[in-house]
Amino acid sequence: MSDVVVLGGGLAGITAALDCAQDGASVTLVEVRRRLGGAAYSFEREGLQMDNGQHVFLRCCASYRALLERLGSTHLVSVQPRLSIPVLSPGRAPARLARGGLPAPLHLGGALARYPHLSMRQRLGVARAALGLMRLDPADPGLDAVSFGHWLARHGQDQDAVDALWDLIALPTLNLPAAEASLALAAFVFRTGLLSGVDAGDIGFHVGTLQAIIGDPARAALQRAGVEIRLGARAERLERTAEGFELHGRDGEGEWSLAARTAIVALPHDRAGGLLAGLLGPDAGMPGPLESSPIVNLHVLYDRPVLEEAFAAGVGTPVQYLFDRSAAGGAPAGTQYLAVSLSGATREMEMSVEQLRERYVPALAALLPRAREARVECFVATREHAATFRAGPGTAALRPPARTAVAGLALAGTWTATGWPATLESAVLSGHEAARLTLAELGATRGALPRAPEPARGPR
Asked: Distance between CA 373 and CA 361 in Å, rounded?
């Protein structure tokens, strides 16, 4: 019998398993896929190494960055020395949103004053709205009843200002446009990432593939920590027993079961609900009422370089963000592989690959003059129907805490009440909290666990 069974091998499950094992608990991690990493994964298509999405992070994501150091992956990520977002728009010269050296929030004043996609009146209005956001308390329950778009309209932000600026941040962080997003989560994002600290919003990138940064090193770290990893094992039923829990499932060899004193459910919210129903009941902190929001990624290989920047945002175009993934993807010499990330992509989810190509190849050509003469060698679309929980108004009341009403059972995942939207940071924070509660439960029932030695770290 294990001390802990962790259901789910994403960032939340990896973090929880490492924390528990480090404190001396015997841990079994169960993952339905044949790999670790959860929603952050890589695959090969058309001879290219592709990530399912462009999971950027910010300098303020301290817990996620600490996990990468723990995995020995920091040499495969980079963080901007200073926030700088190239902004492209059809028929216009490239612009840039970059922070200065003044204290927050004045560090963004210069970028706003020079931003050509807003009029002078709009820039002044944006500054006033930003100051208004700083006065909000994201923990105020009343904020979650209001949409960010409604609040912006009340504070003088017209649709052009929302399209040109506010949605540049809201879409990739909340996976919803401002019009549909919770004001509480939007206030948290803007305050934490942009307005409260000078360098908090500097953008971090995965220079390698997600498999090389998360999946492979996580497996090695878990094995070093003594965690038993069961891949390709589907968890189907979790039951309470006199000694703890019994998990039943199925894999390629048939049905299986395992016993554990405690359990951490770190599955996506749409899967966790069904597994927990027998233990928690329909009204006891179930994630079922949470809705999902999709992300679509387009992978485009050109026969020549067409984008000079490592990444860029789009304004006045259906292209939201595009990234140069040539090196990480192993693109042939002389070509360029671009990944286009489309958040809140409800419309794009219904489009065929050919329809997406017909819409976005011309849109890319309108942004990138060199793409007009280039040949598209490969066009691939990947879709994540339930990429994140839907961060709309009313979400906070639907996100359960890590602690449940069942002793020894904890929840983890971006959908739990971390205070963050569905980000890499939220996943790691949830794993830490679930492990803390689980270790406290084990300590109360068995006495203090022997603390395991710190596992050796990989190269930095």
From this structure: 12
